[in-house]
Input
Amino acid sequence: MNRKRQQINSLLAHNPTTIAVVDGQIYEVPLHQEDNTFLLINLPSHFPEEPPVITLSPTGLRHPWVEGDVVMHDALPSWQPQQSNLGFLVKEIREEFMARPPARKTNEQQNEGYNSRPPPPIPATVPSVPEYNAIAKLSPEEMEELLQNETAFDIFFETLDRVKNLKTFQEELRSGNELLAHKNLGREDQLLKLRSEVEYLDTIFKQEKLEFEKKEKIQNEAFNRFSSSTVLTRLKGGVYEQDELSEKVAQSFLEGNLDNETFVKQFREFRKVYHLRESKLERVQKDNLFVSSY
Output
């Protein structure tokens, strides 16, 4: 396993919420979900020989460790490929920003100090600055030329390793952003398809919901016809009905409209049903049972 992958694994291990935007090049570490702040870890092409570039998003936030949206942790200038640990470094930055969140700059806050916040950590050793070494090699005449001649200064400035590395990093970042943009655009058809499917399923759901509500209404009406109170009322009505029918048969016999055989047959059937229903009614009222009508 090469050193770059070891550093990336350390980043992922010590910062579990890390998101690979462009694997091996750009990583995102969320800080505060409520304001959508995060660290953007950019790995140069020669990482880990070159230190990572860590920026804070969104832009325009203030904190003692931030200068122009770039995190100025003192471990970065003294970065050592063999000794420095990306995971620990990002974890320390993340914990600092979680404990003391960066604040957005306002007009009133431009001159506000950070008396309540700790200063950036002091490195154990003062790192050497390559730019100073490059300038130290110049003769007084060459330095005077740089001060007097803007073109000469620009040429010298472009030869500095840090400037060249920064330009390389900017190009890599631009390429990474383009790659990410193309990747997102490549998902457009899939998102449109999913949106269409959701709209279709939503229409089906609404139709089936209406159908369910209609059937539920019919079911409730059917249940109401067989409720305890409804059955009890119908049973009482049935008892009264059979009693009335038997009385009419008896009255018709007394008036001479029925012979003995017909009277006995009809009266016996009506009274049989009457007594059966009367028995059920008594049982329901006594034991509070639910029974269907005869």
Observations:
- The mean pLDDT is 83.
